[in-house]
Amino acid sequence: MVKAADRDRNPAGSSVWLERRAPRAGGGPAGLDRDRIVAASVRMLDRDGLAKLSMRRLAAELGVTAMSLYWYVDTKDDIIEYAIDTVYGEIDLAAVDEGRDWRERLTVLTLEYRRMLVRHPWMSPCAGQYLNIGPHAIAVGAKIQETIAATGLPLSRRPSAMSAVFQFVYGYGTIEAQFARRATEAGMDPDSFYGASMKAFRDDPSFMESLQPMADLLDERASHGSVTDIWDRDFAFALDILVAGIEAMVRRESGETDETGKSGATDETGESGKTGGT
Questions:
Q1: How far is CA 172 from the centre of its chain?
Q2: pTM of the predicted model, to two decimals?
Q3: How many Å apart are CA 80 and CA 89, to the nearest integer?
Q4: What's 20-52 look like in SS3?
Q5: CA dihedral of residues 127, 128, 132, 136 (deg, nearest 10)
Q6: pLDDT digit string (tens) for 132-151?
């Protein structure tokens, strides 16, 4: 496993997945293994957040001594790296493959990614701190690249398309997850928390003038009732916009236009299409 000192000396090349350490001699504690440790760590992270994860707390969760954990991991960072890859494994890549074209596959992939981030609010701040090179993370990355490649964009443009789509998903899922956590901490369901928050600042006289230019938009959003419906509707339409942008860039890169002088993109079946998100 990766020692804390190793991470300090070589942060760019340190990962539990790069370690080639021989197993410890002898047998580990009965009834304990790495899978059980990681599963418990994910439960704790979901319930208590990143700040409260420690080897001592994790050992208490498992009903073992803290020293027992060191048969399988050396540091809390090791555990977090394993936990990150475990939740990447929740993304259903088989469901992605069932999509009829790249648009459907991209829709499923982005929804799966977003839902994973929302289920695990600790994931977002962790993802950028580690190399994310576990087997599940690599499989997800490969599926993202495969899906973007199917758009027809040239190789040099694909990283930009991946960034446009998945940085959007990352940001969206992060905000949605933190909103849900804030509501839970307040002892409220998301709809009640959203309604109370909106009312708090819209009813405050000091905000009335500054909110006037956006009053119509705020009223429109409030008309949907469920904050979950708002999250889903906005995500779906934003994704449609991104897909339309990719289609436009494919046409621009290829120089293809129809008889009206406008470009006409087709899907892999030869038919024009959209994500079906709206």
A1: 9
A2: 0.84
A3: 14
A4: CCCCCCCCCCCCCCHHHHHHHHHHHHHHHCHHH
A5: 30
A6: 999 999 999 999 999 999 99
